[in-house]
Amino acid sequence: MGHRLLWTPGLSIVTDKARVGILISGRGSNMQSLVAAAREKDYPAKIVTVISNRPDAPGLAWAAAKKIPTVALDHKAFRSRDAFESELQKALDAAHVEIIALAGFMRLMTAGFVARWQDRMINIHPSLLPSFKGLHTHESALAAGVRIAGCTVHFVRHEMDAGPIIAQAAVPVLSTDTPVSLANRVLEAEHALYPEALRLVAAGRARVEHDKVVISEDVNQSVPLFSPAFNK
Ligand code: GRF
Fold first, then answer.
1. Which of 96, 171, 222, 224 is deepest in the core (most CB within 10 A)?
2. pTM listed for this prediction
């Protein structure tokens, strides 16, 4: 894995992009942001397939309309989680997927599947993990009265919404926020964060060491975040 640069005899550079499969269950707005980023010439990843466990997911129709190879695997049609995952693995193999990006994929994976994709499967969650795991994150954040909320991209582990953290984006929580207004603000940050996190992983600039992510030193990590922004 990683962003491999190959020199050809004519001295032009051929980039061998990491092959990414996106798994969705619904609207797929994060998938769209990854697809948009991957259209850039220098982006180190290519979206080779979009797979949904819900055949009627709006995101699947969107991807198909963009001519991205799509696979619908209705989990209800399988007698067990293992049977579903075995078909899923076949679809991933057929597309030669190297990295899985979960984007609103609402099925829990078995320990075996997670282990098979260890450090090659990433997820986005709409909270600053480890706070507010699971569903209803924005309600929980408002109930807790935090002044900063946000989103997290992490490598997937068997425990839900856990795993080495690759990147996080923070947004302010306003006194007037409702779960919907906060969700919208966080979602906008998600769309900016996920492509950057995938860029780091695909380029080999975010690596897991001792179950924590080490970010390559050429990434600027020195800008502090404040909420409220006291300089205004
Ligand atoms: C996002 O908020 C993501 O963080 C969470 O599920 C939601 C999916 O939204 N895991 P979309 O399908 O990407 O629009």
1. 171
2. 0.92
